[in-house]
Specification:
Length: about 120
């Protein structure tokens, strides 16, 4: 085989090249992925031809990469919103601990600002 010229296929020596037409695979799904990519800020949306799935990659800084996949565009959009909500809740600071009573149980009353012990109107007299 080494050193011999090929005599089969569309690239035979001495023949004009054959025109190969480009096929558009999964056109509606790819256009749906492009629409989601334009409309969802902070996400890069892709459609995989080999797996026939939609993928979304978070484009904002995160401690770990956020990659979401779904079979439908609607399902992917729903999962993207869930991931945004989850990320927002994780980014919020933890609430302060509830005040503790002397007996060790937690109080259900909200924490209040301590009052200043001095009474300025009494000191002025």
């Amino acid at each position: 085989m080494i050193g011999r010229s090929r005599r089969c296929g569309r690239h035979r020596d001495g023949q004009a090249p054959t025109k190969v037409y480009r096929r558009l695979w999964d056109g509606p799904a790819r256009s749906e992925a492009e629409r989601l990519d334009r409309s969802c800020q902070g996400w890069s949306v892709l459609y995989s031809l080999s797996e026939r799935r939609f993928y979304a990659l978070a484009a904002w800084p995160t401690p770990e990469p956020v990659i979401i996949a779904d079979d439908t565009a609607e399902g992917l959009e729903k999962r993207m919103r869930e991931a945004e909500t989850t990320f927002t809740w994780q980014a919020l600071p933890a609430p302060p601990p509830a005040p503790t009573r002397r007996d060790g149980t937690r109080s259900q009353a909200p924490a209040v600002t301590p009052q200043h012990p001095r009474r300025p109107y009494r000191d002025a007299a």
